[in-house]
Amino acid sequence: MAQLRLGFWQRFAVMLVVPVMTALTTKTWIGRENVPRSGPVILVPNHVSHFDPLVVAHYIYRAGRWPRFLGKASVWRVPVIGYLLRKTRQIPVERGSIEAVKSLETLVTALNEGDAVVIYPEGTTTRHPDLWPMRGKTGAARLALLTGAPVVPMATWGPQVIFDPRTNRLKLRRTHVTVTTGKPIDLARWSGASPSRAVLDEMTEAIMLGVRDLLGEIRDGEPPALYERPARRASTSEDAP
After folding, report:
1. Could you tell me which residues are beta bridge partners of residue 67?
2. Whole-number Å distance between alpha carbons of 203 and 61
3. Would you call 26 helix, strand, or coil by DSSP?
């Protein structure tokens, strides 16, 4: 693992999380060489469980990077947890509000400073009955256009055994998890394009197909078409990161 320079609270988080992950999971980690050792990168995992951010964070940390997750701002208002999230440099986003613009600016700054940013393009745990990826939101594509940072697809499988979003059942037992990353998504054809809805949708489709195909490899199955997310009331949050 590359040497990381971590502050007190980051080291504290590592001391909390790594022993838990070691106790709860056995691991197959594939493709860590695809996580750049330095410089800006946007990492885009699938989302099968509320537990998988810990799995993803463990993988990225062992790949030699400090992950900066984008997450719902409501979590930052939870006592203790919100404090730790701020201290470990995670990034809140208020969806559907002017604060979403500020969150985007924070993400751009993070990438310009060479950080590793983690965005779940689906925006929530997948609603597919068999936990295949849904169509994504456009935040990762927008960030890639603004910064030129590479977008690296990730796929995880196994965290749903610990917490299954379909049943909301938690099973704290030792579980095998698999995480893989692929080569950066080829987005060169959109380089310098204006961030129109059509461009962002095309880029997002390419990103999500990359994630889906990686998941197919570790599930050893033929992935279906990207799942159409259930209809919901129209909201500007669809364009939030």
Report:
1. 116
2. 27
3. strand
Nearest to 154 by CA among 90, 60, 26: 60
- Residue in the structure block whose two tokens are 């990381």: 4
DSSP class of residue 189? G
Residue type at 190 in one-letter notation: W
Cβ atoms of residues 9 and 1 within 8 Å: no
> What CA–CA distance (Å, rounded) separates 123 from 126?
9
pTM: 0.91
pLDDT in tens, 166-198: 999 999 999 999 999 999 999 999 999 999 999
- Report the DSSP beta bridge partners of residue 26: 176
Contact between 159 and 57 (Cβ < 8 Å): no
Q: Which two tokens stand for residue 3?
A: 């040497």
